[in-house]
Here is the input.
Amino acid sequence: MTAALIGKSVSRVDGRLKVTGAATYAAEFEVPNLAHAAVVRSIVANGRIASVDTAEAERAPGVIVVVTHSNAPRLAYQPHKGLPDAAVGERLHVLQDDRVTHQGQPIALVVAETLEQAVYAAEVVRVTYRHEAAATDMESVDPVLPTGKPAEWEIRRGEPDSAFEQAEFRVDQTYVIPRENHNPIEMFATIASWQGGSLTLWDKTQWVHNVAEEIAAVFGIAAENVRVISPFVGGAFGSALRCWPHVTLAALGARVAGRPVKLVLSRREMYYGVGYRPHTVQRAALGASRDGQLQAIRHEGHQETSTYEEFTEALLSATRFLHSCPNVHTRHRIAPMNVHTPTYMRAPGEASGMYALESAMDELAVALNMDPVELRLRNEPDRDEFKDLPFSSRSTRECYRAAAERFGWAQRNAAPRSMRDGRSLMGWGMASATYPMNYAPASAMARLLPDGTAEVMCAASDMGPGTWTSMTQVAADTLGLPIERVKFTLGDTRLPRAPIHGGSMTMASVGSAVQAACRKARDDALARAGSNDLEEAMERLGQVIEATADVAPGDETKRFSMHAFGAVFVEVAVDPDLGETRVRRMVAAYGAGRVVNPKIARSQCIGGMIGGIGMALMEHSAVDLRNGRVTNANLAEYAVPVHADAPPVMDVIFVDEHDPHVNPLGVKGLGEIALVGVAPAIANAIFHATGKRVRELPITPDKLL
Here is the structure.
């Protein structure tokens, strides 16, 4: 029996594969007789295809077939909703008619012997359009309440309007976040190969079973006839949760060409086909008494979505429970536009909504002449006032205090422009963080082998947070084996089913299933062998012991409100002449339950915190309102944070927190919460440094001069 592994910092078990290039990503699988595909995309935002001339493309060297809406097979497009809270409406039907709903919509598919031949042929396909007026500017679109679940989109508690008017101190401001694109380093890629009526897909995805079921629905075949393989994902941040149209195009091209087809999206194409964080406009109004007690919160926001689907994110959910307040009104609306459908992007909803809420809280603290931490402590609830449930655990106070102490917050001079380092204006800011703790049904299998090793399997994904390692760690800990004697396998629909690799639920869901399967197999082996030592028992038995376990949430979600909480403290330096902002220090504290691997958990948090720097200071998908074209669809003009942007001091604190209710492992995911709160903390620090309150992200130099 080895020492306990849960709670220990273990290096990544897949690290060597990645740094040596041995890890195989979607575009890298070798499939015999492989052809290559390229997509012809719309250059208008709304209208109809008048004509498609493919003659020159079909004559081009190496071209196998050119598929358009005129010659494409009719696809079944049976109903399928694979995601919790999936977009309402009907997904894009590719190459099925002449309708164009957005810039970049697939118009034709070219399949050729080589990638270069496919790209060239796609460039010589001639398309003419019948243009129609396009809605590309959210300011010109009247927002509406989403359809379905109307009680979720507008919520009122108490008398917020009258309470706000009667409040002695009030803040009422508008906050804007632009569209942001995910920009994972790995391009989206799909290889499709038909074997009669069965299909194999090598794909970049955060949920292999969802891809199998979506493609089965599109082609009208049984889901068990679609195998999806995705062992490694080179970043996704939510963009690979859905099964996007390019997967259908790859499968369609393979069927028409009669041979396997690879389709790899370019960086530019990823701005038009795999979702984005939607542009949002929010109005946050807070009213408080002189002693800082919140009397009213009014928070409304609207966001862009496509004309064919209503995508909504939980923009206002945190406002309903984060701070104690008797009178609350939230209203969420959407603006249908000629764009492709937005999607989940790291910390969807909370990252955007908390920017407005926590910026407004800072503005209220300034109006009250009160320390921002003290204001939050005075409005710390003892239960979820929206759901009227106790929290399963809530360590917000501990997070505020631990991070503030480590940061040295007590030394802060509250007056704006009062702190300098040479010529630089220095600013300190902070914000709260929260994210719901999701726990979904999951299954896992454990196989104990006679040589004393173990194989554990689940169709989970790993886009970088360390799933390979953490699951191996949980399995080894449960079995009492050295970690090097356990092999974990993931990323294949032939394995036991996993939920989405998102929503900060993988550790909770898959980890609990792995623990249950290993415990079941271990107990079976020990009972059969009459031994207390697993390796000795397996040697004595001389046979494989196999166990499968299924886990699912119980009624705890009806009894408790379950969230992770945290606090982020930031120091910025602003050049008063150039308006350039540099983040110098970041300290964050999180109440995340049981931390399985502190080393990987810290890495997760550091990544999220750096992502928050991008959200606050850099990221913005610039759209040409004449035609809906993204004008900076590349990494030269769409700025993302790099190592040079990371502050020299990044400190992460995990406060002690025991939560027996949240899931069997007692863990809380850290993938999303580490991004939440960073943007408002930076914005608040910039105000403290400069005395200028910027309410539209990103905070670029021009907004400070």
